[in-house]
Design a protein that fits this description.
about 290 residues; alpha+beta; about 35% helix; globular
Length: about 290
């Protein structure tokens, strides 16, 4: 029994997981086949940036360096959270004024205007958090009202410019990082015992020491991470069975409101899949172009 536990600990060690399971492989290794395919099509097209043609309205088609606020401004405004753009070196007083004018209240989400994989994305609960983020982040960033819908999904959509109807290529369901209490151990101990949470433990010990000392009651679920990125511990689940003709029609309507954007992934929070299928009860958090993965 002890030997079994010893081997289990080795197999679930963060370093072992990172290099033995596809889900955790470093980007260059996981995407090696994609790089080869891109190179093949670049040679055929005789243009290294051939992929930019999929989204002429977005820099590089959305592969790298694109401005999130520029894309958000092209989306139907009723479908995105209240959003403000903060340029580097903007005074904190001006940031607060913009929030007040927009009617934004805490909690809010702060994210880089140019960035990916959840880097430097934070949930800010109060003015103290905003002040700390404003001081630490030396670049343009975006503030959005935190959308408290229970589900987060990603919809990868594609439509040919000369076609009225497009396709949903994948539907990803997101399950946020969490632990379930046993009434005895604190959150740090529960995370250490979970292969997925253990990978994030060092970050949480630095950023949320008080939460790490908390002892949840028996069967109490503690959501650890409100940001739905895989790099932050979120589990990505296959939701393709939930793709319906009605859902495709919803995103066809959105697509026809965009000029020069035909391929990409919508990151969304929704009340339910049924509500989103009916075209209500959802907000688009952001849109990722050609680099948006299924």
């Amino acid at each position: 029994m002890k030997r079994s536990n010893f081997y289990q600990r080795i197999l679930t060690h963060p370093v072992v997981l990172r290099y033995t399971q596809w889900e955790y492989l470093p980007i260059p290794i996981a995407n090696a086949p994609v790089f080869l395919i891109v190179l093949y099509f670049a040679i055929r097209a005789r243009k290294l940036t051939f992929f930019a043609a999929a989204n002429p309205a977005i820099d590089t088609g959305g592969v790298f360096g694109e401005s999130k606020i520029d894309i958000l401004r092209q989306l139907p405004q009723m479908l995105i959270p209240e959003t403000i753009f903060v340029q580097q070196n903007t005074a904190l007083e001006d940031v607060c004024y913009k929030m007040q004018a927009q009617g934004m209240k805490f909690p809010i989400i702060a994210k880089p205007n140019v960035g990916e994989r959840g880097q430097s994305v934070s949930k800010l609960k109060n003015l103290e958090d905003l002040t700390a983020y404003w001081k630490a982040f030396q670049a343009d960033f975006i503030l959005q009202t935190f959308i408290d819908f229970p589900k987060e999904v990603s919809v990868l959509y594609c439509r040919y410019p000369n076609k009225a109807k497009g396709s949903i290529l994948s539907l990803c369901l997101k399950e946020f990082l969490s632990v379930v209490g046993d009434g005895k151990r604190n959150v740090a101990a529960l995370m250490a015992d979970s292969p997925r949470a253990n990978i994030q433990l060092e970050r949480f010990l630095k950023q949320q020491p008080e939460l790490m000392r908390y002892v949840p009651a028996l069967n109490e679920k503690v959501e650890l991470e409100p940001i739905g990125n895989h790099s932050r511990g979120t589990t990505f689940l296959n939701g393709n069975p939930y793709i319906t003709e009605k859902l495709v029609q919803v995103f066809d309507q959105i697509s026809h409101q965009l000029e020069g954007i035909y391929y990409g992934r919508y990151d969304i929070k929704c009340e339910s899949l049924e509500a989103m299928e009916a075209g209500t009860g959802f907000k688009i958090l952001e849109f990722n172009g050609v680099a948006g993965e299924p």
